[in-house]
Amino acid sequence: MSLRLLITGATGQIGWQLQRTLASLGEVVACTRSQIDMAHPAAAAETVGDLSPDIVVNAAGYTAVDKAESEPELARSMQSPRDELPKWWRAEVAC
User: Fold this and answer.
1) Which of 33, 37, 39, 46 has its CA 20 to 30 A from that of 64?
2) What is the pLDDT of residues 30-54, one digit of tens each?
3) pLDDT tier, 88 (very low <50, low <70, confident <90, very high otherwise)
4) What separation in angstroms does the CA of 53 have from each of 7, 19, 63?
5) Helix/strand/coil (H, E, C) string of 33-84?
């Protein structure tokens, strides 16, 4: 069985590396911010639902450190969207 993996933050350093690393596991769908904007969790969840991945790897993040002070809400929303995402999108890991 081949997996369908969705990676957000595709143009970032981590997202780019994940595309290469995970390609051997199955079909990799790599999305940029213009395709899945994590600052808008409801729209992001809808897009994820449309793509129907088996696994979602969220490598998106706000990296414009110099702009974070002038865009605090955007910076915060990109770094901690977890609670606003549908439960089916979140992986609960017990250690």
Assistant:
1) 46
2) 999 899 987 787 888 889 889 999 8
3) low
4) 10, 14, 26
5) CCCCCCCCHHHHHHHHHHHCCCEEEECCCCCCHHHCCCCHHHHHHHHCCHHH
Q: 29, 53 in Cβ contact below 8 A?
A: yes
d(CA 3, CA 26): 5
Is residue 27 within 8 A of residue 52, CB to CB? The reply is: no
Per-residue pLDDT reduced to its tens digit, 16-27: 999 999 999 999
Residue 29, token pair as written in the block? 């769908």
Tokens of 83: 């609670």
**Which tokens is 74 given?**
């955007």
Global pTM value? 0.74
pLDDT, position 85: 58
